[in-house]
Amino acid sequence: MASTSILHFRSLFLFVLVASLRYGAAAGDVDGGEGFCSAEPSSECSGGPPLYWKATHPTLAPAHLQDLPGFTRSVVKRDHALITPESHVFGPLPDWINTLGAYLISPSIGAHFTMYLANMQDGSKSALPPKDVERLVFVLQGSISLSVGTGTTHSLSVDSYAYLPANIKHSMISDESTTLVIFERRYSATEDFHPDLIVGSTDKQPLLETPGEVFQLRKLLPTSLPYDFNIHIMDFQPGEYLNVKEVHYNQHGLLLLEGQGIYRLGDSWYPVQAGDTIWMAPFVPQWYAALGKTRTRYLLYKDVNRNPLI
User: Fold this and answer.
1) HSE-up of 40 (CA within 13 Å, CB side)?
2) CB hemisphere CA count around 277 (13 angstroms)
3) 193 torsion bin: left (phi>0), alpha (psi -120 to 50), beta (else)
4) Using CA atoms, how far apart are residues 281 and 112, in angstroms rounded to an integer?
5) Rounded to 5, what percent of the chain is helix, strand, coil?
6) 149 falls in which pLDDT band (50, 70, 90)?
7) Residue 59 confidence (pLDDT) above 80
8) What is the DSSP annotation of 45-107?
9) Rounded to an integer, what distance in angstroms lies between the CA atom of residue 270 and that of residue 291?
10) pLDDT tens for residues 153-207?
C-alpha cells in the first residue's frame, strides 16, 4: 500500500511540474519577452516590443483561458463598464475608406462622448465627424498623415496625438497598418471661446504636480476654458496606487496602454491589463493600484471647465 501511495504521489508531482513548466512558457510568451525589465518602460528593454504593443496586441492571462468559448472579462453596469479586448466587435466605420472600427464607449451606455478604435490599412482614409463634434486622435500603432484646412500636413506616429476642434476640415491617411484611439463629443460652447488645433506627443508634455499622490501626470490639452475636456496620461510604478478614492461629477473613458493592476469601480474590484477600456459615470467611487513588474500607463478622458447644469 505504501509503495502504491508513493507511485501515486510521484505521478501527481510530475503532472504538476510539467503543467507548471508549460504555463511558465506560455506566460513568458504572454509577457512579450519583457523578462526582468523590472519597472522600466517596455520600449526601453533591449529587443523588446514596440511602445504600447500590448494595447494593440492584447493577450489574456492566464494563458489557458484565451481559447475558452464564451469567455470574457467584460462587465457592464449602470455606472461603470469594463470592456476587454476579447469582446471587441469591429466593423466598417461610416464613410471611412478601408477602415474597421470598434466602439468601446458611446451614449448608449450613458456617456456623453464616444471612444473607439480605428484599424487602418496602408492608404486608408478617415471621414469627418458629425457637425459640431470635436475629435481627439491618439496613435497606438503605425503612423498617419494629418491634413488640416487647405494644405497644412502633420505626421503623427506612436504616442502622438491631435485635437481637432468641431467643424474643422481635416483628413487622416495611414502610411502603414495603423491603430488609433479616438474620442469625440459634441462641443459645449460657452461665451466666445474657440479652441485651437493641437498637435503634440506625450513625451513633449511636462510632468505636473500631483500633491499627495505618487503617480506621474501629463495633460495633453491646455487647461484653459475653451477646452471642455482633457486627456491625461498617468504613470504608476509597480506597487503605486491612488491615495484618494475619488468620487466626482466628471465622466471618464480610460484605456490601459501598459501594465496591469486592480481597479475599483463602485463596490467591485477588477483585475485589468494593457488593452482594457473602462467607462466611469459621474460619482462612481474609483481607485487604482499598479501590480506586476512593469509600470502602468493609462490614457484618461475627463470632461472639464463646464458647469454640470449646462
Assistant:
1) 11
2) 23
3) beta
4) 10
5) 15, 40, 45
6) confident
7) no
8) STTPPPTTHHHHS---SSGGGTT-TT----EE-SSEEEE-GGG---EEPTT-EEEEEEEEE-G
9) 12
10) 999 999 999 999 999 999 999 989 999 999 999 999 988 889 999 999 999 999 9
